Amino acid sequence: MGMYQPLTQEVHKLLLWGDARADMVTTGQKEPDPYINDFVLNAVSEQNPYTNYAGIYKTIARCNRQLEKVYTVASLDDKILPRDAGAFYAEALLLRAYCYFILVKNFSEFPIILSDFAEQVTYVNETGDTTRRKTQSLTNAEIRGSFYYIRDREEVLRMIYNDVLTGLGILPINFEWNRNSLPVQERYGRISQPMAATFAAELALWLGDYQAASAFANSPVRNSNHTLGSSGTWINQFTGSYASLHSLFLLGYNYNNSFEVNQLQEFTSPVAKDGGKYFLKPSSVIKDIFSYEGGDIRTSFSYKVINGDTAIWKYIGVDNVASMRPAYQSNASWQFYRSADAFIIKALADLMLNDYSTAFNFMNMLRVARGLTQLDPAATDYRNKAFMLDLIFKEKARENAFEGKRWYDLMLWTRLSGENKLAATVAAKYPAPQSEEIKTRLQNEQNWYLPINPSLW
Asked: Whole-model pTM?
């Protein structure tokens, strides 16, 4: 469980990286925090403290240690069966891969660390010999020199994909510990087969292997333990520590037993007595994204107007009416993957395979599960790929609003369409002439990635 813990402290950064830069989020304060506002303005400098990825690397380091030590531990503890050791190995491999997926989508430069450096470092010296030295005896420069730095983004995506395929082949269908099944909270809060299959499907989609993406998505789609659920249960993913049927992989918080809190109450609430600093709020473009035809649970729960202030509601509300969480006690889950993600990936993959009917049907299934009516195929241009991409990514924006995914969805939309969808979409939240300036800057894909303070390399 220690592998996951550092990530629970990073969700505010994940919201900044994946949403504050995109079109659906803007600043909430009249006098914005300059470092947070830099994300909203797409003007992040390398001195910005919220670009610090140390928390991601804490998880990577703990994964590396588990990968290297788990079979040694298993040989010393007869309670760890070979099946358990394999499960723990695969869990670490997949979690590390997910961390690198976060990094490759956000940063232009970052080190690839695949070994446990806590005690010793193995490296090739100036004479070409492989040597090992105690980590404490090395200078920072020597440690950095032993890392591999990203040279090709596609190469890193392929490395991640290969690790996911390896882990997926080892991971058991159901975890057990000491021959007992894990409790529900741990099943949703840890890497699992349905999560791994969804992760593999998403990576295949990014890499253009649409047949594999569609096939991998079939696994969670057909899993009776993970369905689209209903509009009546949709908010449970955020109001509880887990949500049956909906969740595949989340970061959970337990306030009552261990005083764990999700920092996003502070970031999104406009109510000062609740600890809210209102750093971020929905932008005006949400009126063009959310459905107002009635019945869509996502429209009534994703955001609210509180005392005249429009607020992101997912992390501060406990129902879809007006009840808010107690002050300083938000234990709202942060969702990495939900069952709906597998359905959306399946729709996108099949669309790219020119299976228009399947893509259209999957979008209709999602709409109905959220309280909307089905789209009529006779009245919908569903065989128009550009139209369908727009339809699916708008549905995804509703489903995953304010969950740190919008920026990457626009990157993926660009890959699938062959057009720069990110630049124009993000620019729409700014007034003229700032809108044109942002659009021009984001036409260059090099400007999609965050800088990092060189002292952290």
From this structure: 0.93
